[in-house]
Amino acid sequence: MSNTNSTPSGKVPMGQKIAFGLGMLANQMFPAMIGIFTVVLVEKLGFSGLLLGLTYFIPKFYDALFDLIMGYVSDNTKSKWGRRRQYVLAGAIILGISFSLMWQLYAENGIMYNFWYFLLISLIFYSGLTIFSIPYVAMGYEMSDDFHERTNIMATSQLIGQLAWVVAPWFWVIMADQTLFPSSEVAVRTLAVYVAIACAILAAIPAFFIPSKSTLNENYSPIDLKGILGSFGEIKEGLKASIEIKPFRKICIATFLIFNAFQTTAGFSYFIIKYYLFKGNEDGFGLWPTLFGCVGAIITTVAVIPIVARMSKTMGKKKAFLFSQGISVVGYILLYLLFVPGKPYLFLFALPFFSFGIGSLFTLMMSMTSDVIDIDELNTGKRREGSLGAIYWWMVKFGTAVAGLLSGLILSLVAFQSNAATQTDDTMFWLRIFFVGIPILGTLTAIWVMKDYDIDEVKAREVRDLLDKRKGNL
Fold first, then answer.
1. What is the C-alpha separation between 74 and 62, in angstroms, rounded?
2. Which of 18, 39, 200, 315 is the most buried (most CB within 10 A)?
3. CB-CB contact of 216 with 78 (8 Å)
4. For the chain, give me the number of helices (H) and strands (E)?
5. pLDDT beneath 50, residues of the chain
6. What pTM was computed for the model?
């Protein structure tokens, strides 16, 4: 690990952007595969909607709380490798081991045994995710001081990260191929090991290829037990700052609304395609859930992210956000109309519009967060990528925990039956209503929240100039 400065002004070499992007590929591949493999928990292992919801809520709620502590630890680490890289590497190793173990589930062990086993290993997995992701994301925030280069960094990382959503849906096809695996349970147990190894390697790449400087001589707060316990004061200060800095508050709320409304119902697409479009008939069904995820991800990768990055430069980040989210609302409406039994190909026409929602969200919001971190430094004199990044992702993960619980409760509410050959018409009607209704409501509310977001390029450059002058006078 080299000790080169990790916070250059201006342009960032493409090699470093790619290294950061490969970390994002791992960061997105793990949750993408959890979404694919989770179908087995319901359809083969008999998890009820409530049990499924708890497997989402408990680990992710814990993960969200751990994020806040990890942000403080990462920001205050004194090391010859800098503040982030050693945690990224350690987290990658923990993620690989725990993910492979998490899916070693056998139906003969019983529902409750499998539930507790999965839940406990999930807690280890999400510990690894926090140890990896908080320092990793902070790396991205500090890679450049340039207003537009920050968007380029995040756009590149999202382009590479979106490959996870292109690849992951094809695992449904692999899992269903009985010439490869006798059952989807066996497929998940086997594939989880290969996914874990590949993703752990990808997650470790930023630790080796994104440079950083030694922090051994920095005047940071201690991260011993006393310091960590005292970090709650820093966390409280960071939370206060996130509330007081109006643009950051808006970023957090808007992300919470859009991403977690999407997360609440995203898994329903599989069940809608299977039980509404194909009436539970397995013949010809298997490819369509794959196409739903894969085609949407391809559109996001080759069209949405480049378009949004260009829009950000020409009209500004806020207008790009409002416009792209408005397009996504049209996409959700079209999805409801174009889910037509016997004509599954029709929903493909909605995907270009639908893909603008999540496809633009993190490209713009992570770039905006970098701008807010400059404002926080100007106000406090502290550079807190880890802490503010942790607060941002705490909002995301806490919401994801709630979204997972709501997913299970909605399945119970609409009387969805695990292991059933078909579902009732009422069940599928309400599942489709929830599938589009919740994301539309979340997106429209987020648009209203962001309508008066006030950090533009001029203001961001003024803040950056003041910071540079301050440093020059030290």
1. 18
2. 200
3. yes
4. 19, 0
5. 1-8, 474
6. 0.70
